[in-house]
Amino acid sequence: MKSAVLVAVLALVASATAAATKGGVRLPEYFPTACARNAPDLNECIRKNMQFVMPLFAKGEKLFDMEPIEPIAVSDVRVQLRREPFDFHAVARNSKVYGASSVVVRAASAQLTDSSLDMALDIHIPTMFIEGDFKIEGKIGSFPFAGRGPWNVTITDLEANWHLMGETVDKEGEKYMQIKRFIPTYRVGGMKANAENLVEGAPELTNLAMNLINQYWEPVLTAMMPATRNELERHLKRMASSVFDSVPYKQLFPVA
Ligand SMILES: *[C@@H]1O[C@H](CO)[C@@H](O)[C@H](O)[C@H]1NC(C)=O
To answer: Which range is the signal sequence, renumbered to this chain (predicted)?
Structure first.
């Protein structure tokens, strides 16, 4: 009889404990210890944790409904370049972006309140490789051209600043951080593009055009950035949101 009471008491204690952690969700086993919102070394803690998890997100994370980031799959990106000697519009299809999981997180700086998040991450990606299909039409100088086929580009020494801003929302009595803005800015060290059939049926002109593009890669990249940025911003924001939407704010950033 006594032991039955004991079991009942234990069960009550156990369910009370379970109730106390209610709202806490299961995290991946590899997940590092959360950084306290008010920790004196908050910035360094965030930097270390980001550095730790990014390579592990390569295959995505089911617990967060996160898609793989190695590669990041990008659907259509439309670009237009009107800058001497180029005047063309192009669409890149089914692109795959490789390299995001080998990011080096150089610095983090965060202001976290009970209801808002403002975080900047300085990152470095040594090499990114992007491949996909393209369709292009336009002019180089006064020479009209059109082409389609596979393309790829290697980008070296990418430095980026990822700026995230969020506000808490209530979901079933629990506060979650909702990422409102994700603003990436980029600087690139070098770029080398490859495309076959850039000028349909004229391999020697394709070579000439590719050489021009690789020689003038900086203005080419600058011109392509606005279109690419939106697409990147969408993907990165979704990636960040998959964590923040799945895990209560106080579990991600507890108060010590
Ligand atoms: C990049 O594209 C070029 C031209 O289509 C192709 O010859 C080359 O094999 C590609 N590189 C890789 C690593 O896929």
So the answer is: 1-18
